[in-house]
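so my prof wants the structure for this chain in the tokens format not the other one, which i didnt know existed until like an hour ago. anyway here's the sequence
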Amino acid sequence: MSFYILAGFICAVIIVVLLISYICYRMAFYAFKNPADDLEYPIPEGKAYAPFRDKMINWLKETRQLPHDVITVTSFDGLKLQGKFYEFAPGAPIELMFHGYRGLAERDLCGGTQRCFALGHSALIVDQRGCGSSEGKVITFGIHESRDCHTWLNYIIDRFGPESRVILTGISMGAATVLMAAGTPLPKNVVGVLADCGYTSAKDIIQKVIRQMGLPPTLAYPFVRLGARLFGHFKLEETSPVQALKNCRVPVIFFHGEDDDFVPCEMSRINYECCASPKKLVTTAGAGHGLSYPQDPERYLSALREFWAIHMPAPIK
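here's what i got, hopefully its the right format
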């Protein structure tokens, strides 16, 4: 009898662990459809974004009027990923731009195309896997997304030729995506990275959110990690920005709002310290999450002009 009781207890524990892990997977990694994405102008809600709402809507309207190509590529695991290419001029450097967690390229990168054009750059903004017009059901906090970055790079080189110059650009999870890609072997076409309000690792940002929920991270995080492995089929700690930056060989410019209440500004400071390549860190007083450019666009552009004037190579021959 005691054997059956013990076996029943073990089975019950396993079921509870699997159930909690699945709930964590659904909460953190499953790419559900956000009804707000279907709004005409899907600007984020919240008081931090309210002062910039009209500006962001104007940016969206302007971007939608610009000539562009809709592009589709196939990921390493068979997903159809979609992006839009806005050409400033033939031969101009191309910014390959990635949005944030459960975001949209058009929304999270609004103003990005105008910023690129102000610098003489073309822009390729992409919906990450599981978001917007791209396929997928699992968001991996930059693990698989950094591989998608290589897929887009291959497309750019195939279409625009071996002389094309590419800047990897990302905001929030998109910044983590390009930073993790920057720690891998890159084609010579990648001339730099722009990382705006990126986190240090998936573990760090998830534990930070768990604490905000009033739960103990040391107890809850293992269920999140297990959920990623069992149901998302990826290793959450396979790599991270802080690990990848130790192997980075291209110049990186970091931006972060000092009043960011989602990804703490300190995370970009840590990323900056870990970066082994030429680098610059620009923080913006009073700016919330992803709002450094809307808050002070001229300062943002000035920092980029100075950085690329030093680190942007001549066209590749």
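also thought this was worth mentioning. The beta strands are 69-74, 80-86, 94-98, 122-126, 166-171, 190-196, 252-257, 279-284.
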